[in-house]
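agent> Task received from the user: take the single chain below, predict its 3D structure, and emit structure tokens. No templates, no multimer pairing.
agent> Plan: (1) validate residues, (2) run structure prediction, (3) serialize to tokens, (4) report one or two observations.
agent> Step 1 OK, no nonstandard residues flagged.
tool_call: predict_structure(input=
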Amino acid sequence: MAKKNEKAEVTPRRRIDFWDTTLRDGHQSLWATRMTSAMIEPIAATVGEVGYSVIGLGGAAVFDSCIYYLAEDPWERLAMVNRLTPGSAKACYIRSLNILGWDIFPDDATDLTIQTLGKYGVTAINAFDALNDTRNMESTIRSARRHGLQSIGSLVYSISPVHTDEYYIAKAKELVAMDVDAVQIKDSGALLTPERTTELVPKIRAAIGDKIKLHFHTHCTSGLGTLVAIAALPLGVDVMHTAISPLANNTSNPPTETVVYEAIRQGFDVPLDLDKMEQEAAYFRKVAKEHGKPTGIGAIYDPALYRHQVPGGMMSNLRSQMAAQKLDVSFDALLEEIQRVREDLGYPIMVSPMAQFIGVQALFNVLHGERYKVVPAEVRNYALGWYGEHPSPMNPDVYDKVANGGKPITGRPADHVPPLVERARKEFGSHLTDEELILAFHYKPKTLQAWREMRSDALHYPLAESSAAVLLNELRLKKDVNFFHLSRGSDSITFRR
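)
tool_result: status=success, residues=497
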């Protein structure tokens, strides 16, 4: 861990840029990723005018929610926001070798996905890996640069005997060697404290040099998120990730307004339109009230978080699923078993998908009264190297049980998966667009069929940039409109039902 009183040199930054997480991490954390495109459309232009350096838009959870719950086309959402925010940089998270899903994908699938995201106005790709295995992030970073997008390599923060300052410095240098545009400290588990922040951030800043931007991303699950963000301001951070206040706090990110005004008080140049920022906050307060959605409140400090490290969203899902299944299991016993399983597996980080794998294994251990009597395929694949390099060696006895005689792989997992794109075109049909093909290899045919059926009466956001196309499509979906006539110069169109 960090040595006390050991300080790295910090190059002063007098300007702080902000990355708005509201349209991705904010509602993913507080609204179970249920923000609809209809909620986004009226405020998108204003968000684009605030002056954020980046607007966070997409990731695995957003695509999943559109397909499984909202009957929306995620590509249409990206196109709509891009049309309304033409001058703004927009970002999507790529979950390393899982891309936007849970399976292990080869490099050609990663490249097609990133190229297609670029067509919809995504200008920055944030690559992260649950094991901080930079080999898994390499193809994402390479593809982003190939297609003219910014590449941001994330280092997920964790606490263990393995995750020392030296570990993170080495990982940061590996990302620099891959020619990333920026490095992000990603504290998705809300495990940083103000003291730990002042130790770690200057060392990462020094390790990556002055030419590469440093992003800072934390959550408020511990109750310390806002303090942590403010502590990071003078430590060489270039871009701070925050959510507008109605969708901040609790398990979400620190509130934009609080961090912005504190940065201004500290003398930083903050290139934001504060009036537009307040308009964004007022709008989402109104949306939350109208739709019965929660707004973020400060979380109560819980020291147990630093032991089990279970993310806030996963914690609530575990409780609800156990209640729904009427499982006679002590939740405290489950959290203790999660700690033990994580240690057995070599301290993987409690972030998707590893957090879910560890949680399921721990639940099986508690339910069956015998540890590792039942082992999910994902945990076995982890043991055999299919998710990347273990942070530290597994418990040998547990490895023998989990691996069950399987042959481990070496090198990058993606190198062991055959190319997918052309194979998928043959399987799903050569007539499919790239957008349809990407959804096809992320989601099962039955899932997509159910999604198409749900979408039959849903509001669509056309991919065309024409405002007339948007108007025509929305009028088409209004069942009480039987006739309309549109004319412009010598051109006209009439519609009757």
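agent> Step 4: summary for the user.
The first strand starts at residue 17 and ends at 20.
agent> Done.
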